[in-house]
Amino acid sequence: MSTPLGKAAWGFLLAALDLRINGVDLLPDPVGWVLAAVGVWALAGRSLGFRVAAVLASVEAVVSLPLVVSEEIPAPLSSLDVLLQTGFVFAVCSGLIAALPHRPDKAGSANSSGGSTWVSPCCSRRRCCCWRWRRTAWSSLDHWR
Description:
- By secondary structure, the protein is mainly alpha-helical.
- Helices cover about 50% and strands about 5% of the residues.
């Protein structure tokens, strides 16, 4: 848990687990969201995704306060809770993708059109599974229809 991403992962796990005795949550969600926010704030300089995730985790820490003492919260607050959690996961994944180093094509040269090339690990036929992101994917996957 010493790495920022580890703190974020443990915080999200703590928020996801629900251990209640007599209606009181022993693993309070706000504590998990604060831990997640601290973890992604440390990574905020690397990508916009981590900054967005930090803000969402901070807001979620406040929104989840009623869950500490009650198992049920009003419908609008519950919907906001789900949206914030989904946004947090999406923002962290976006931050991780943006923070990964970009690799050139297999040949070692940059793409001529400036787009990236994607190869599916499940298909060895290069003509069907590789395409430039700017082209339509459906025309490249005709053999799957």
